[in-house]
Design goal:
The complex is a heterodimer of chains A (261) and B (369).
Chain A lengths: L2 H4 L26 H15 L5 E5 L14 E4 L5 H11 L4 E7 H7 L1 H9 L5 E6 L2 E2 L5 E2 L18 H4 L5 H5 L5 E8 L3 H19 L4 E7 L3 H4 L3 H15 L3 E5 L1 H4 L4
Parallel strand pairs in A: 1-2, 1-3, 3-4, 4-8, 7-8
Antiparallel strand pairs in A: 5-6, 7-9
Helix pairs in contact in A: 2-8, 4-5
Chain B lengths: L2 E5 H11 L4 E4 L6 H13 L3 E4 L3 H13 L4 E5 L1 H17 L3 E7 L15 H5 L10 E3 L4 H18 L2 E7 H5 L1 E5 L25 E2 L6 H21 L3 E4 L6 E4 L2 H16 L4 E6 L1 E3 L3 H8 L4 E6 L5 H9 L5 E5 L8 H13 L8 H11 L1
Parallel strand pairs in B: 2-3, 2-4, 4-5, 5-7, 6-7, 11-12, 11-14, 14-15
Antiparallel strand pairs in B: 1-8, 6-13, 10-12
The chains are: A alpha/beta (261), B alpha/beta (369).
Chain lengths: 261, 369
Amino acid sequence: MVTSDIARPENQVYCRPRSFTDVSTHYCPGCTHGIAHRLVAEVLDEMGVAEKTIGVAPVGCSVFAYNYFNTDFVEAAHGRAPAMATGIKRVLPDKVVFTYQGDGDLASIGMAEIMHVAARGENITVIFINNAIYGMTGGQMAPTTLPGMKTTSSPMGRDVEMQGYPIRMSEILATMDGVGYAVRRSLHDPANIRKAKKAIRTAFEAQRRGLGFSMVELLSTCPTNWGINPVNSLQWVADHMVPVFPLGDFKVSAAVGDIRI
Amino acid sequence: MPRELLKGNEAIAEAAIRVGLEAYFGYPITPQTEILEHLSRRLPELGRAFVQAESEVAAINMVYGAACTGARVMSSSSSPGVSLMMEGISYIAGTEIPVVLVNIMRGGPGLGNIAPAQGDYFQAVYGGGHGDYKPIVLAPSTVQEAIDMTVMSFDLAEKYRTICMIIADGSIGQLMEPAELPEMRPIQRQNWDWAVNGTGGRQRRILSSIYIEPKDEEIANLRMLKRWQEIQKNEIRFKEYYTDNADFVVVGFGSAGRIALSAVRAARHQGIKVGLFRPITVSPFPFAQLEELSKRVQGLLVVEMNMGQMLQDVQLAVKGNTPVEFYGRPGGVVPFPDEILHEIQRVATSKLSLDADPRMSWLDRATAK
């Protein structure tokens, strides 16, 4: 048997999602943004909704997310993606609208916007990338930076007496009545990636059924700014981030709970 | 349509609905809150979108998102709230999408007060946010004009893919007077070739204010300036009163212009040959028209409810052809016609200098009392 016998369309089990554009990303080697992007694209493919989807890109490392998805996209101001998504969804309620935001964007400068989009129960989906650091600006302390963690703006390590504590967004948002789905997953190994995919699908299904605000928080790596190699970064997520940001379902409304993927 | 007794803020809101406003996002602030209140009732009853946002920052970014779909959207606020919106306003300008905004101005800076003022002229006319851009800015002086400009603002914003802002001081927002609303038109969302609304199989579209390559940003900046050139060519609007045989002309916009008209009429009764020039588009500013006027008068008197902001544009326009004098009431104080009449009398009987700084001369007079 030669390669051409095997490489036939009917044998193909893995390919670029149709909801992806055919370009290479700007992300650093080992960064899990690529995985998160792919999971979203696979979900859009499976649901067949790419043609009616509008994405909202944030400011941060994923500022160029719009280059990678084969859907309509807008680019928000820092932290304002949920507000922009609200504007789009209110005018186009039948379209699928999602934001893709990092921790600085969502949990710091955009705290008011994310809290109120959840309080209003806007029928949108938020993909929240938590890597405990500001990536694009070069590794400053984020609202999710772990106690003691060294960053370029907490060079001695985050001193909770002076710089406060990390914010757990999924837990906070779970207290809101407008939220249909708020869960935290991790991208540090294949088993967790599969769970993350299922959660993203559930979140988009919740939106499709009009079940209110849905968010999937994804623990992610930043090898470049953590100063840890990609493989060890994955282990660092498991060892250091998961204890502070426990994985789990913090809010699954009864209606969302009925969704079977 | 019949003439009705209408409050300025409600008239603006209702006029917007009747020309197809699909979505409004705003935050309460005096003296513009009636716009938000009126729309909070009317838009849902028409099945259109209304959101009271958590802040003006969020409101303008909701407007940004909704405008990207090609729908007719607007927000309104008053001075401190418009300052908060400046982030989104700059992004909207950079994305080149049509948005209508209303600023019912109040006294400032800072928290200031809730009385009528015109202190946001610079902020509005010169864009206010970061980067190079200029919005269209309209200044009504009556409730009827506020209605007509609201109608016009959507067409202008869409024609040029730009921000169109109405700046009215608090008295225009709050006063009631007879005015005629437009007829209710059905919503006709245009099939814009830039709107983001799901590909539906077409080529995907991205709306953004990012041009990461400086050369691309330069091209975008020049494109916007080219468009501005067109706007300047086509859209300058102003009103002249008694200027045909005037020796002196008062220049004022909005309420200051309206009050000045009373003073001009009183002065005419006294035999002073004075007229009024009232810019309606304060951006684009009627530079050429004022320059022409300046060649045939003995002096101009700029009257504003601020410390001399449009004054600078008037000075630019007249190129030293004629002396320019200034009278202002900043901080939320509204001038009486008598005050302006007194200034007209002073200007008509004084030896005017081309060299004096009109703002400083006014300050000396104002603080000497």
